[in-house]
Amino acid sequence: MIRFENVGMRYSTGPEVLRDVTFTLEGGSFTFLTGPSGAGKTTLLKLMFLSEPPSRGLITLFGYDLATTRRAEFPALRRRIGVVFQDFRLLDHLSAFENVALPLRLSGRRPRDYIADVEELLNWVGLGERMWSKPPTLSGGEQQRVAIARAVVAKPDLLLADEPTGNVDPDMGKRLIRLFAELNRFGTTVLIATHDRTLLENTHAREMRLVDGRLVELRASRQ
Amino acid sequence: MKWTAANENRILPRDAGAGPLDVVIGVMAFLAALALGASLIADRAAQSWQSGLSGRLTVQIVPPAHGDPQAQLSREVDAALGVLDSTGGIVQAAPLSEKETLDLVSPWLGKDALVSELPLPRLIDATVEPGATIDIAALARRLKSVAPDSVLDDHRHWIARLKNLTDTVVWSAYVILALIAVATAAAVAFATRAGLEAHHDIVAILHQMGAHSGFIARAFERHYFAAALVASAVGAIAASVLFLLAGGLAFVGVEPVHFLPPLSLKAEELPWLLVIPLGSGLIALATARLSVLAALRRIY
Predict the structure, then answer these.
(1) Alpha carbons within 13 A on the beta-carbon side of B136
(2) Cα B154-B159-B165 angle, rounded to 5 deg
């Protein structure tokens, strides 16, 4: 599914943020990416969701070597990835419903085919009453749930989440992790970047740890 | 609130790029419509002048300085009419009456009684059969032989000068139109880039979610096409109203200027002004599309 070989990353002429990162994510796996703030978790995610090119090394995504893949093929690859951004990145002028429906629009589905799905998902994350509210009127936790719903609505092949439970209460956090696990059960590869170790305690998922830009610790899945 | 088709089509916020750009496009469309209207008026005037003068000959007989001018003038007019009537290709020749001659000079000399006492030349207006070729030089010589004070004018010189003048006006209008089109394109390109900058987050998130460049470009080009269409329609309508008002000047006592065409557009010419909002919208659309695609090419 995803393979990194000796990947290094630096922004402009700055120091290397990631160094010699090598790992493989098998299809259908569930992985936590942990590490202290500034360790490079977000940068690693950016490389995985095709936001930045690596400075060096080889990345293979869904069988495509990104160094030799034509740029015109990137949108199709990106549509196979759901991303929960740490800062949510919702479109403020669209309602929660419209934000969540956006990936389905981009994949060419017609509204009458997805309205019920989107409403059901928003009800599931507890936003049934607020689906027509705009993000600026929602709390941080509500915005986070909209961002998560948007990332999972198209049932992506790969789900990448950057601190997805950072703004919700523990109960909602567990509920959201269950949502990711459910998605994973149906075949989606999940990688969650977090520094909340309590999330890991309740699961048997694989853990990759980043320290100072290097992957220094790997815990195999105990499932 | 429920889902609606209008919401479905909306990707950019409604305020994107509004305001100053609309004013600039509206003013430019107004100027472009004035330039286009001026070219239409000049073109119509040129055609009217040419059709009025071509196919016509004028023989002017200047009053002689000695002897009995009126008797001499009458003799020469009769002799000249005889030559014209016997010339093949001339279907009709008639002298202008004294009143018609006075009417011709009245714009310059007025209608004072003293004017009628001036030694005015006599004019003979001749109509040439359409398609007929007349040897003007030979005709002038024959006229001179019977009427020594005659001057033959086939208006070729006048027509050439009028054509030069109207061509200059028409081409000037086209150049102004081209300059306004370039300025509109530049303004729209600038505003689109500013819009892209202001909505970089929207472009980035759509790009990140796998939107094709064409999808993002369409959102921007639709937005700027609609904005430019509406703004330039307002400008073109304002110019149309001005042209219609110019047509009504005579009703408020403004006298038309002789030999100059009326500064108003005919009803059948007004639809030409629709070209301005349509052209302006298409320029905005193309510029927005190219700017967005260029910006997206710079993103990974």
Answers:
(1) 13
(2) 160
What's at B157, amino acid-wise? Answer: H
pLDDT digits (tens, 9 = 90+) for B165-196: 878 888 888 888 888 878 877 776 777 667 76
Sole residue written with tokens 């090119």: A53
Asked whether the beta carbons of residue B206 and residue A97 sit closer than 8 angstroms, the reply is no
> Is the Cβ–Cβ distance between A197 and A22 less than 8 Å?
no
Q: Which two tokens stand for residue B93?
A: 């020749």
Domain ranges of chain B: 5-51+163-299, 55-154
Q: What is the 3-state secondary structure (H, E, C) of A115-172?
A: HHHHHHHHHHCCCHHHCCCCHHHCCHHHHHHHHHHHHHCCCCCEEEEECCCCCCCHHH
Q: Which residue in B79, B70, B157, B160 sits closest to B122, CA to CA?
A: B70
Per-residue pLDDT of chain A (223 residues; tens, 9 = 90+): 899 999 999 998 889 999 999 999 999 999 999 988 888 999 999 999 999 999 999 999 999 999 999 989 999 999 999 999 988 999 998 999 999 999 999 888 999 999 999 999 999 889 999 999 999 999 988 999 999 999 999 999 999 999 888 777 888 788 788 888 888 998 999 999 988 787 787 777 899 999 989 997 666 765 5
Task: Nearest chain A residue to B14 by CA: give it.
Answer: A93
CB–CB of B19/B44 below 8 Å?
A: no
Partners of residue A75 in chain B, C-beta under 8 Å: 210-213
Stretch 206-265 of chain B: residues touching chain A, C-beta under 8 Å: 206-213, 215
HSE-up of B42 (CA within 13 Å, CB side)?
19
What is the spatial distance between Cα A209 and Cα A32, in angstroms, rounded to a whole number?
A: 8
Amino acid at B164: N
Specify the 3-state DSSP secondary structure of B93. Answer: strand
Encoded tokens for B162 = 């009028």
Q: Which pLDDT does position B153 carry in this prediction? A: 85
B280, with CB counted inside 10 A (0-12, 13-18, 19+), is buried
Q: What distance, in Å, lies between the first and last C-alpha atoms of chain A?
A: 19
pLDDT (0 to 100) of residue B243: 86
CA distances from A51 to A59, B193, B208, B236 (A): 13, 21, 7, 45
Fold category of B55-154 in CATH? Alpha-Beta Plaits (3.30.70)
What is the CB neighbour count within 10 angstroms for residue A63? Answer: 9
d(CA A33, CA B272) in angstroms, rounded, equals 65
Cβ atoms of residues A134 and A99 within 8 Å: no
B207: nearest CA partner in chain A: A75
Chain A CB within 8 Å of residue B6 CB? no
Question: Tens of pLDDT along B87-141?
Answer: 888 888 888 887 888 887 777 777 776 777 777 888 898 888 877 788 888 888 9
